[in-house]
Structure formats: C-alpha cells, structure tokens
UniProtKB/TrEMBL annotation:
Its cofactor is FAD. The active site is at H455. The lineage of its organism: Bacteria, Pseudomonadati, Pseudomonadota, Gammaproteobacteria, Oceanospirillales. This is Dihydrolipoyl dehydrogenase. It is an enzyme of class 1 (oxidoreductase). It comes from the Bacteria. GO terms for molecular function: dihydrolipoyl dehydrogenase (NADH) activity; flavin adenine dinucleotide binding. Coiled coil: none annotated. It holds the Pfam family Pyr_redox_dim. It is found in: Cytoplasm. Residues 5-338 form the FAD/NAD(P)-binding domain. InterPro entries: Class-I_Pyr_Nuc-Dis_Oxidored (IPR050151), FAD/NAD-bd_sf (IPR036188), FAD/NAD-binding_dom (IPR023753), FAD/NAD-linked_Rdtase_dimer_sf (IPR016156), Lipoamide_DH (IPR006258), Pyr_nuc-diS_OxRdtase (IPR001100), Pyr_nucl-diS_OxRdtase_dimer (IPR004099), Pyr_OxRdtase_I_AS (IPR012999).
Length: 483
C-alpha cells in the first residue's frame, strides 16, 4: 500500500480542488484523485464546471453578447461599426483557451500548495481506503484518516430524447457545435437551457425552448421571472411552457439529418422539427463505480450521498460535498462546503449558512437571487414587506444603455430582517453579492437603506430597493413620508 495521507479528496471539481488546497494550507498531507481526461489524453482538473460547464459557457455567453451589442446597440450610443459577423470557430478557440488557462491554473495551485495529484478513477473502499485505477488500468490503493467525496454530477437523460451523436446532445455537446444550427430545440427552461439557448439564438439559431412546468423559473420571485421571460422572448427565444416531451425521431442522413420532437401541451399533441436538440432537464449525482459495497456509505432515495449539515456521511471520517449531496448544484456551494470540511478536519468549528447561497442565470440581462422569494414566504406563512426599484430609474443603468430589469428586496414584516434579494439586470450576478453579505450578517432592510452607496453605480438600485421596503425610495414617485 502507498503512503498514508491525512486527507484524500475524490474529485477535482470546484468542491474537490478547493477542499484539497485548503486542507493542504492547513498543514494536512493531502491528495486529490481525478479521472477527467481532455482531448489530448491529459488528466485535467476543474471537473464539469471548468471543462464543460460554468467557464466555457460563460466564454460563449460573453462573446455572443458582445456580438449582439455591437450589431444591434452600438449605433444607439454613437458607435458605427458597419457590418458585423461571427466566427464560431474563433469563438470555440477562445473558449478552449479559457478552459486551458483555468485547468492549468489548478494544477499549478496543487503544486504550490503541496497537494498530491492522483490520476485515475477513485473508488472508496472499507476502512477509509481509496482505490485509484489509472488510465492504463492498473489499480493502486491509498489510505487516509479522512476522505472527502466530491464526485459531482452528470446530466439527466430522458427516454423520449436519448443522446444521439451530435444531433441530440446534452449541455456539454451544446458547447461544441461547429456552427449555429438553423433550428435549435432546447428541452428545459432552467438555468442551463436558457443560457445555451441564448448563446445560439444570438449566433443566428431559431431557438424553441420546451418546458414541462407551467411556471417560468419557479425558484425566482415571480415579479422578476415574468419580466425575464418577456425580455428573453423579445430576444428571440420561443419559450413554450407546459410542453412535455413525449418522443423524438431522427430523420434523414448525413448533413440533412433532423430531429422531430413530439410533445403535449394545453392544446394536445404537438410536434416540431429541429436541426439540433439540447436536453437540459437537470443533473443527477455521480456515484457510478464510486462506492464499494463494503464502504457502508448511505444514499438517500434520490441517489445523493446522505450527509448532515456539516457534510459528514454516516461513516466516521468520510465526508461528501457538492453536487453529490443535498442542496443546490452550484460550484460556489461546493467550494464553500470544501472549505468547511477541511476546517472541520483541522479541528476548527465552522458552519455554513445554506440560506445565503446565491444563484445566477447568465442571460442578458442576468437574473440573480439569494434567499426566499415572495411566493415561498407566503407558503411558509411568513409575513413580509417588499421594496422594488427599476433600473430604468437608475442614472448609471441609463448611461450604460441597460435600463431593463429591477431589484427586489424581501424583508420580514416584523423584524425587518432581509430574507431575500432578487435582481434582473446588467451585472446582476455581481450585484447579488450585496444581498448575500447583508443576509450573512443578519442585516435589516434599514441597514441597507442607511448604507452609503457610490454614485453613479448600478448598486444604487439595491440601496433604493431597500429604501422602498418602507416606502422611502428617493428616486421613485409616490414614496411615503418619513415619520
């Protein structure tokens, strides 16, 4: 058996690599197992997020947004650029360069922090041992006092639309199109579906999004969600709600292949033909060949590894974090859990506030939120008061030629404590951090209202929304008089 470690982390995604680095920083002898191999056959770190998820999708979202801004909006502010064209091949090269820089950066961080990188597939055995099967098929067993499972998740496949070559693809396949398909279907109007649909719509595809639910973005405050839906439809996304896919059939050969999708909605059975189809109906925990029967790790009814509030499994010394456990499947949630677990192993007593985890949809404008929405408050029997402020009344938003959207603050009616912040607008993903910090410190809406925000900034909309909770917004009509 190889050397014993203080900590072995299985998986080098945003949860795993952060856990490994922080554990090493705390003086723990740490190893991290990763089996992901790139197109060149080299082991790379970063997991789904850096290789086929968060990072590459943002590269394409940013480049495609810049294209639309240049083509459709620069003339409005006095910049004439003439004909503007896209080069999808160049965009893909840029995306791949961003991936390489990020994954290479993690490898350097492992070396500088003394993390041992183990290449291959990790499997948890009994007695806190990890079997690592290399790419050559040879297996080696390692032992540690503590194990952190960070194996992540994979896309959910659905029987009515099985993955087929490059015509019916998942979210990873949608990042590899060589050109914009003329007719693109997207199953699922969640975060991933809306982002990928936006990318290819901007690059020329006729995009239809099929969503089985009747409510658009139910996790977002509906005042925000409805505005977002209108804006996305205006941009060209044909979003069909209550559309449940029942089947698909690929017709034709070669480049003339197309996929006929059948679905049902309030009008009965429907069908639509696409050149490409992206399936984005969610993700599931990845536990394939991960746990030996003798390891004794319990899974819940949905296949997630069962953990407590501090990510302990039912086996002493074995932890699990990120997408493979309960909670939102978000990279930053996984990273913070990794830091918490490393601290626990080092003898500290950290806690994580799961009520203050932000979510972002990187469409244009962006949608971001933290905490509960007004509908959830009603369902939970919490009496709330709310304040909203539109970006159309923000001097900086108007100067940026980005007046769409608003900020909404939700506070407890009795205590004034901030329970949620929801934002639709330019840079909403950056602005939401102010709401997260407020909630993390237990701030009241009045605390935000009494804080001095720089002018002119988009952040002032957060300030005004907090003022509006008690009817005191400065830059809105019909505000209440202070007592």
């Amino acid at each position: 058996m190889a050397d014993k470690f203080d900590v072995i982390v299985i998986g080098a995604g945003p949860g795993g690599y952060v856990a490994a680095i922080h554990a090493a920083q705390l003086g723990l002898k740490t190893a991290c197992v990763e089996k992901w191999v790139n197109k060149e056959g080299k082991t790379v770190h970063g997991g789904t997020c850096l290789n086929v998820g968060c990072i590459p999708s943002k590269a394409l979202l940013e480049t495609s947004h810049k294209f639309v801004e240049t083509r459709d909006h620069y003339a409005e502010i006095g910049i004439n650029v003439g004909d503007v064209a896209t080069d999808v091949k160049k965009m893909m090269e840029f995306k791949n360069s961003v991936i390489a820089k990020n994954t290479g950066g993690i490898s350097m961080l492992f070396k500088s922090n003394g993390v041992t990188a183990l290449e291959g597939a990790g499997k948890l055995l009994d007695g806190k041992k990890v079997e690592v099967t290399g790419h050559d098929g040879k297996a080696e067993t390692f032992e540690a006092d503590n194990i952190i499972i960070a194996s992540g998740s994979v896309p959910v496949n659905i029987p009515p639309a099985p993955m087929t070559d490059d015509i019916i693809v998942d979210s990873a396949g949608a990042l590899e199109f060589a050109e914009a398909p003329k007719r693109l279907g997207v199953i699922g109007a969640g975060v991933i579906g809306l982002e990928l649909g936006s990318v290819w719509s901007r690059l020329g595809s006729e995009v239809t999004v099929l969503e089985a639910l009747d409510t658009f973005l139910p996790m977002v405050d509906q005042a925000i969600a409805k505005d977002a839906q209108k804006l996305l439809k205006k941009q060209g996304l044909d979003i069909k709600m209550g559309a449940r896919v029942t089947g698909s059939e690929i017709k034709g050969k070669g480049k003339s292949r197309e996929v006929v999708v059948k679905y049902t909605d309030s009008d009965g059975e429907q069908e639509q033909t696409f050149d490409k189809l992206i399936v984005c109906v969610g993700r599931k925990p990845y536990t394939e060949n991960l746990l030996d029967d003798g390891a004794g790790i319990k899974l819940d009814e949905r296949g997630f590894i069962f953990v407590d509030d501090q990510c302990r499994t039912n086996v002493s010394g074995v932890y699990a974090i990120g997408d493979v456990v309960r909670g939102p499947m978000l990279a930053h949630k996984a990273s913070e859990e990794g830091v918490m677990v490393a601290d626990i192993i080092a003898g500290q007593k950290p806690e994580m506030n799961y009520d203050a985890i932000p979510s972002v949809i990187y469409t244009a404008p962006e949608v971001a939120w933290v905490g509960i929405n007004e509908q959830q408050a009603k369902e939970q029997g919490i009496e709330v008061k709310t304040g909203a402020f539109p970006f159309s009344a923000s001097g900086r938003a108007l100067a940026n030629n980005a007046p769409e959207g608003m900020v909404k603050v939700i506070a407890d009616a009795e205590t004034d404590r901030v329970l949620g912040v929801h934002i639709l607008g330019q840079h909403a993903g950056e602005l939401i951090a102010q709401g997260v910090i407020a909630m993390e410190f237990g701030s009241s809406a009045e605390d935000l209202a009494l804080t001095c925000f720089a002018h002119p900034t988009l952040s002032e909309a957060v300030h005004e929304a907090a003022l509006a909770v008690d009817g005191h917004a400065i830059h809105m009509a019909n505000r209440k008089k202070r007592k």
